[in-house]
Amino acid sequence: MKIGPIGVWPPVVLAPMAGITNAPFRVLCREQGGGLFVCEMITTRALVERNPKTLRMVRFAPSETPRSIQLYGVDPDVVGRAVRMIAEEDLADHVDLNFGCPVPKVTRRGGGSALPYKRNLLRRILREAVAGAGSLPVTVKMRKGIDDDHLTYLDAGRIAAEEGVAAVALHARTARQHYGGVADWDAIARLKEAVPEIPVLGNGDIWSADDALRMVARTGCDGVVVGRGCLGRPWLFRDLQNAFDGSAERVRPALGEVAAMMLRHAEALVECFDAERSAVADFRKHVGWYLKGFAVGAEVRRELTSAESLDGLREGLSRLDAGQPWPPNTDTPRGKSGERSKVHLPDGWLDDPWDTAVPEAAESDVSGG
């Protein structure tokens, strides 16, 4: 698969996930197999204003190449300035634009999965981004639409192709679905038919490498985007590498190997954050994902999820049964799920799909989703 000048094999992308896809996690995943590994969502306003936290978030480990940044923005001028900054200051090799985030604090500003409803505003943003990127490829990640009555993905895909976007990725759910229900893989096939001139990547319900192969076979998409399926499981990228290379081998680490990876992950976060207590606290959310399916007592789980230091984490990990084999039936949903009763939108957002006005206070100065 080619994303502009960048060759990607296997045709796999790590989806940006707020609070998850920082440099330590990306490095662990990248060690397992190839693909594109995208940083956490960066807001364009925070980037152009050189917010210190945001500038730390766009730092990559020396081993990371190519470097991929995902941007969230609503104002075409600010998006254009942010992409131009990335290109001119060599901050990344690839820019992805977020039109898929369903969380209320994003959609109520008209951003994320709400934005493609405004077709002309979307076009203006894409035009500014592609112009500012120079030789860097620009891609788009989006959802089917706001809800089943306001689907936007086919129009958005055509606009993206017309404006010079290098590839489009579709999370085959609406914003209202959030992470609930079943992803509509048939929508991915329809998008591929609508924009055959650029790569189309599918996203949604990929819990195993075999799911990825099934998605490609069923939809004709050019590659896959993996999000929640890799939570607590960097090994999924080795499985994906094997699967796309034609190998049936799959990684099934024993609990001792999982524990070693957990400690590496936490240690890397400490180095990245330069603050042990906050880094270990940040790692706690990963514990349940790493231990999914394993027989681990409640006391040990509590010890791991309340650790305040690396020594405390090491002590808890030492209590695990290192020889316990990988549990069966773990290729199942991970992370948050469930639908939303409504999508929060700016007042009057649905009145005119062709309006190009940028909502007041649309641009957030905080990165990370």
From TrEMBL:
<comment type="function">
    <text>Catalyzes the synthesis of 5,6-dihydrouridine (D), a modified base found in the D-loop of most tRNAs, via the reduction of the C5-C6 double bond in target uridines.</text>
</comment>
<keyword id="KW-0560">Oxidoreductase</keyword>
<dbReference type="GO" id="GO:0050660">
    <property type="term" value="F:flavin adenine dinucleotide binding"/>
</dbReference>
<feature type="region of interest" description="Disordered">
    <location>
        <begin position="318"/>
        <end position="369"/>
    </location>
</feature>
<dbReference type="InterPro" id="IPR018517">
    <property type="entry name" value="tRNA_hU_synthase_CS"/>
</dbReference>
<dbReference type="GO" id="GO:0017150">
    <property type="term" value="F:tRNA dihydrouridine synthase activity"/>
</dbReference>
<dbReference type="InterPro" id="IPR004652">
    <property type="entry name" value="DusB-like"/>
</dbReference>
<keyword id="KW-0819">tRNA processing</keyword>
<keyword id="KW-0285">Flavoprotein</keyword>
<dbReference type="InterPro" id="IPR035587">
    <property type="entry name" value="DUS-like_FMN-bd"/>
</dbReference>
<keyword id="KW-0694">RNA-binding</keyword>
<protein>
    <recommendedName>
        <fullName>tRNA-dihydrouridine synthase</fullName>
        <ecNumber>1.3.1.-</ecNumber>
    </recommendedName>
</protein>
<dbReference type="Pfam" id="PF01207">
    <property type="entry name" value="Dus"/>
</dbReference>
<feature type="domain" description="DUS-like FMN-binding">
    <location>
        <begin position="14"/>
        <end position="311"/>
    </location>
</feature>
<dbReference type="InterPro" id="IPR024036">
    <property type="entry name" value="tRNA-dHydroUridine_Synthase_C"/>
</dbReference>
<comment type="similarity">
    <text>Belongs to the dus family.</text>
</comment>
<keyword id="KW-0547">Nucleotide-binding</keyword>
<dbReference type="InterPro" id="IPR013785">
    <property type="entry name" value="Aldolase_TIM"/>
</dbReference>
<feature type="active site" description="Proton donor">
    <location>
        <position position="101"/>
    </location>
</feature>
<feature type="binding site">
    <location>
        <position position="70"/>
    </location>
    <ligand>
        <name>FMN</name>
    </ligand>
</feature>
<dbReference type="GO" id="GO:0000049">
    <property type="term" value="F:tRNA binding"/>
</dbReference>
<dbReference type="InterPro" id="IPR001269">
    <property type="entry name" value="DUS_fam"/>
</dbReference>
<keyword id="KW-0288">FMN</keyword>
<keyword id="KW-0521">NADP</keyword>
<keyword id="KW-0820">tRNA-binding</keyword>
<feature type="binding site">
    <location>
        <position position="141"/>
    </location>
    <ligand>
        <name>FMN</name>
    </ligand>
</feature>
<feature type="binding site">
    <location>
        <position position="171"/>
    </location>
    <ligand>
        <name>FMN</name>
    </ligand>
</feature>
<feature type="binding site">
    <location>
        <begin position="227"/>
        <end position="228"/>
    </location>
    <ligand>
        <name>FMN</name>
    </ligand>
</feature>
<feature type="binding site">
    <location>
        <begin position="16"/>
        <end position="18"/>
    </location>
    <ligand>
        <name>FMN</name>
    </ligand>
</feature>
<feature type="compositionally biased region" description="Basic and acidic residues">
    <location>
        <begin position="333"/>
        <end position="345"/>
    </location>
</feature>
